[in-house]
Amino acid sequence: MTNDTxxxxxxAPVAALAMVTIDCDDAHAMARFWSELLGGxxxxxxxxxxxxxxxxxxxxxxxxxxxxxPQWSQxxxxxxxxxxxxxxxxxxxxxxxxxxxxxxxxxxPEAAGKxxxxxxxxxxxxxxxxxx
Length: 132
What we know:
Radius of gyration: 16 Å
Strand order of the largest sheet: 1-4-3-2
Number of strands: 8
Number of domains: 2
Shape: globular
Distance between the termini: 28 Å
Structural class: alpha/beta
Helix content: 10-25%
CATH class of the largest domain: Alpha Beta
CATH topology of the largest domain: 2,3-Dihydroxybiphenyl 1,2-Dioxygenase, domain 1
């Protein structure tokens, strides 16, 4: 069975994705971490909400007083994750950890030498990968 809907829109778009907003317990700390990691700028930082722009992408961080970090595992509760591209996997993973990321445990066995799973300061998983 072929699914052609992915490549052929059924109608003109009614909206465009402007940014992704991620819930967390400390919006300022998340903006600081992601702006450093992505080499971007903190575009907005006010109380419970911060925004980072980097490479044409905008990430928002909203403080949720009832926030709970997702649990990492192959059968965990993560709902999404960001994939970052790099030319130097070891250097990128090391820098992320210097900025406050943690190495996820366990690492997927198929990831070896291709990507590394890390957790941002609020516990969200993200991958640093060599693409191509």
